[in-house]
Amino acid sequence: MADRLARFAVLPAAVRLLIAALAGAVGALGQAPFGIWPATLAALAVAMLIHASAYNARQAALMAWGFGIGYFGLALHWIVEPFLVDITRHGWMAPFALILMAGGAALFWALAAYLAARMRPGSALLFGLALVWAEITRSLIFTGFPWALLGHVWIGTDMAQWAAFGGPHLLSLITAISAWSLVLLYRRRWLAGGGLVLALFVAGFALRAPMTEAAEDAPVIRLVQPNAPQHQKWDPAFRQLFMDRMVVMTAAEEVPDLVVWPETAIPSLLNYIEADMQPLADAARGAPLVFGIQRRDDVGRFYNSLVVMDGVGGVHALYDKQHLVPFGEYIPGGAVAERLGLRGLAAQMGGFTPGHAPGPVDLPGIGQAVPLICYEGIFAEEITRGDDPQLLLLITNDAWFGRAAGPYQHLAQARLRAIEQGLPMVRVANTGVSAMIDPWGQIVADLPLGIDGFIDVPLPAPRMETYYVRWGDGPVFGLMTLLTLLCFAVARRNSD
Question: Which residues are the active-site residues?
Answer without folding.
Answer: 263, 321, 374
